[in-house]
# Entry
Amino acid sequence: MKTLKMLVLVLAITFSSVLSASTDSNENAKPIAITETVGELLKSPDFQLNKDVDAMVTIFINQDDEMVVLSVDTEIKSVENYIKSRLNYKKLSKEAIGYRKSFKIPVKIMQSN
# Structure
């Protein structure tokens, strides 16, 4: 009886470790595709900055697969307006979106040279 209990315990541990070790690589790739798309859309700002600016952008994907900027957490109003104007209602591909409908994306805009 002890060996049967031990065998069941070993099988349960093995089964649970196999389940936890298997991950879906496509799910991990989705946020990267979104951040790459956002990075491309925010290239070449049309204003000068004296310092690097960090912002946290919250976006929502509507039924037409377009980004809607919900909030831009930054202290500089011109950066907020720039991000909103460049991202609002830009279409995303189905592959980039996946199943999630809202994202928080950190954005860093570097100072102008």
